[in-house]
Design a protein that fits this description.
Elements: E1 11-12, E2 24-28, E3 42-47, E4 51-56, E5 78-84, E6 88-99, E7 109-114, E8 117-120, E9 129-136, E10 141-147, E11 156-167, H1 169-190
Antiparallel strand pairs: 1-11, 2-5, 3-4, 4-11, 5-10, 6-9, 6-11, 7-8, 7-10
Length: 191
C-alpha cells in the first residue's frame, strides 16, 4: 500500500503546474496611451517546456511630450510574470538578459520577484548582454520583471531556462508523517 502512494517530485522545465499559461502577466504603466497596441508595453513568449522570454516595453514612435507617461511612482513601465509557490519551496533557473536600449542595462532593468519584493538580477552598470543562474526560496509567490525605465531607444528581454522547482521540505515531512501514520495503523489492525 505504501509503495502506491505518490511522492512529491522535482518539476523540471516549464510544465504543469508551472506551464507558461499558469503564470500571471501584469503590465504596470502604459508605454503608449490608447489606442496604440499593447505589445509596446511588453509581452511574454514561451517555448514550453524549455524557456519563457519576457520583453520589456518600448515606444518605437517616441514623442517628447509623452516622456513622463511611464513614471506613476514606480520609475518607468514594468512587465511582471508571477506564480504562487504551490507547495514548492526552492526555484532555480538560468537567465539570459539583453538590452537593445542605447543607454544599455542602466535603463532597462531585469530581476526576480520573491514574495512581492524585487531583486535585481541584471547589473545596471553592466554590459548590454548578461546571464547568470539564480535560486529563490519564496514563501508565497515568485516571478520576474523588466522595468523599461524610459521605455525608448530599444527594448530589453530576458529568457528564463533550466527551470527547476523543488518541493518544500515541510511538504516532504508531512508526506513522511502520513506514511508513518499509515504504517502504524496497518500494524494496529494486523495484530
Amino acid at each position: 500500500m505504501m509503495a502506491s502512494l505518490p511522492a512529491a517530485a522535482d518539476i523540471v522545465g516549464f510544465v504543469s503546474p508551472f506551464a507558461p499559461a499558469s503564470f500571471t502577466t501584469l503590465n504596470l504603466g502604459d508605454v503608449n496611451p490608447p489606442p496604440v497596441a499593447a505589445p509596446n508595453d511588453g509581452f511574454v513568449t514561451s517555448l514550453p517546456p524549455t524557456s519563457i522570454t519576457i520583453t520589456g516595453g518600448n515606444d518605437p514612435s517616441f514623442n517628447p511630450l509623452e516622456l513622463n507617461r511611464c513614471t506613476p511612482g514606480f520609475g518607468g513601465c514594468e512587465i511582471r510574470l508571477t506564480h504562487s509557490t504551490s507547495n514548492f519551496g526552492i526555484f532555480s533557473f538560468h537567465w539570459s538578459y539583453a538590452s537593445l536600449d542605447s543607454a544599455g542595462a542602466q535603463i532597462d532593468q531585469f530581476g526576480a520577484l520573491m514574495d512581492g519584493l524585487k531583486i535585481n538580477l541584471s547589473d545596471p552598470g553592466g554590459a548590454a548582454n548578461q546571464s547568470g543562474d539564480a535560486t529563490l526560496h519564496p514563501v508565497s509567490s515568485f516571478g520576474w520583471f523588466i522595468n523599461c525605465g524610459d521605455c525608448i531607444g530599444g527594448a530589453a528581454s530576458a529568457t528564463l531556462s533550466n527551470f527547476l522547482a523543488v518541493p518544500e521540505p515541510g511538504s516532504l515531512a508531512l508526506l513522511g508523517l502520513g506514511l508513518a501514520g499509515l504504517g502504524a495503523l496497518r500494524r494496529k489492525f494486523s495484530v
